[in-house]
Design a protein that fits this description.
There is one protein chain. The protein is α+β, with helices and mostly antiparallel strands. It has 2 domains: 111 residues, Alpha Horseshoe (Serine Threonine Protein Phosphatase 5, Tetratricopeptide repeat); 178 residues, Immunoglobulin-like (Sandwich), CATH 2.60.40. The chain is 38% helix and 32% strand. Strands 6, 7, 10, 11, 12 and 13 form a 6-stranded antiparallel β-sheet that branches. Strands 1-2-5-9-8 form a 5-stranded antiparallel β-sheet. Strands 3-4 form a two-stranded antiparallel ribbon. Strand 6 and strand 7 form a beta hairpin. Helix 2 runs antiparallel to helix 3 and helix 3 runs antiparallel to helix 4.
Amino acid sequence: MKIKLFYASLIILVGCSNREVQLSELKTELEKTKIELLNCSTELTELKNTSENRLIQAKRFLAEEDLIKAKAEFQGIVDNFNGTKDAIKASNEIKRIEKKIAQEKMEAEKKKALGFKVLKPTNIVTYEGLRIKVEKIWKGKRWSFDDYGNKFFFRDAKRGQKHIMARITIKSQSNNPSLPSILTYQMKGGRLIYLGTLKYRFRRWKDYGAYLGNYADYGNDFAHSESIPFNCGIEIPNNQLENGDIYVVLKKQECFFRTTTSIGNPAIKYKEGSCSPKKVLTVEDFEKKYTLLKILQ
């Protein structure tokens, strides 16, 4: 019995000893792997930091208009590869970037000082396959539209009110585009306050039958005509028109959608969707989606 216990104990001791050896070998292999990974990481970092790769990265930042990151990459080339052709290129790019940053800062300060005076009205707006040409924007009592030859429709403003009207032509690359909003704002206390959105009406129809929807008018269908003329309008109280300049603004967003109706005429209309114009505009908004078309005094 004692002999059996002795051999059993011996087997356990040998087994433990073997496991310790295996564990030690695994630890050694793990350390080797860690060192190899560290070496690979170092080599990869060195490859990324070559002047060629840093030049590619800097140009990518330039394309994305991230001037700060682009300058940092170019500066890294100058610092680490001084005297090389890439370093000379990088140095020239840094000068151009610094000049552009200074110019942008000067323009930002100018905008801040001038406020809305820095804005210039435009009569042509292009975006996302649309070209909107403004022919006339004015105030008046009568807004006319839907001319079909021997007759046209009009809407006279109520007493104490006037229409703000826009005569525009829209050119589209799409067969069924959504149209942008034309908005009215009033200058009050150095801020532009939203008044309302002009409605779209077709300027003319081929004839009365086309107006009624008895047959198609290809002249008012972007699927057949590249350009379509519109007369747009909104009715606004005189007291609002007289208490500050009116800014007529276009928002570059899909806001009006072509619809077919079985009630009323014409059968084809552009109906306003959920465009959600900002209630108060800042100068910075005109760098993005908003464009000034006209200031009415």
